Amino acid sequence: MDDGELAEIATETRRAMARLSQRLRAERSPDSLSLNKLVVLSHLYRGGPSTPGEITLAAWQRPQSLTRVFAELAREGLITRRPSERDGRESVLDLTEAGRAALVADAGQRDAWLTAALAELTETEARMVRLAAGLLDRLADADPGEHD
After folding, report:
1. Into how many domains does the chain fold?
2. Residue 122 gets which letter from DSSP?
3. By the 8 A CB rule, do 44 and 50 touch?
4. Exposure of 144 by Cβ count < 10 A (0-12 exposed, 13-18 middle, 19+ buried)?
5. Among 52, 87, 98, 148, fewest CB within 10 Å belongs to which?
6. What is the spatial distance between Cα 25 and Cα 27, in angstroms, rounded to a whole number?
7. Residue 129 pLDDT greater than 60, yes or no
8. Which pLDDT does position 146 carry in this prediction?
9. Distance CA 83, CA 86 (A)
10. pLDDT in tens, 44-94
């Protein structure tokens, strides 16, 4: 596949992802968690206990962007903070049951809309979307500097 075709695929994918992202945001209720709170809770859900630095790095954020979010989540009882066993100056954040429940409820709103939308596709199309989701996950973790 030549660079021109790859560039076309990149443009089409970016546009489709932007539209789907906007639609999924629109399906959230006004009292939903902020996107930064979702990022933190999702990271802890997937990866388990983590330091604030690990979360900001994985979320492609600056530490100062999430400092307030960490404090709010702890105040709301959605995460816990404890000293690191490796380095007492560092803290480790962990998801609480309330945090897990909030994350599941928030995702449930978008999943309900997406499930209904997927039901309008053929079985083959829905399976293709599943395959594409896995590929998009891989793309999200890609380091463009590593390709040939």
Report:
1. 1
2. -
3. yes
4. exposed
5. 148
6. 5
7. yes
8. 58
9. 9
10. 999 999 999 899 988 888 878 888 999 999 999 999 999 888 877 789 999
Q: How many CB atoms are located within 10 Å of the residue 43 CB?
A: 19
Tell me if 23 is assigned to some domain. yes
SS3 of residue 95 by DSSP: strand
For the record, the structure tokens of 123 come out as 């079985």
Report yes or no on 69 lying in a domain: yes
Residues 6+ apart with CB under 8 A from 84: 51, 90, 91, 92
Structural contact between residues 65 and 57, judged by C-beta atoms closer than 8 angstroms? no
Each residue's pLDDT tens digit, 96-114: 999 999 999 999 989 999 9
Q: How far apart are CA 105 and CA 32, in angstroms?
A: 9
Extract the tokens encoding 135.
Answer: 């590929």
Structural domain for 120, as ranges: 3-141
What's the DSSP call for residue 33? P
Residue 148 has pLDDT above 70, yes or no: no
Report CA-CA distances (Å) from 89 to 34, 85, 121. Answer: 28, 10, 52
- Tell me the C-alpha distance between 80 and 95, whole Å: 6
**How remote is the C-alpha of 48 from its chain's centroid?**
14
Q: Look up the pTM and report it.
A: 0.77
Q: Alpha-carbon distance 73 to 52, whole Å?
A: 12
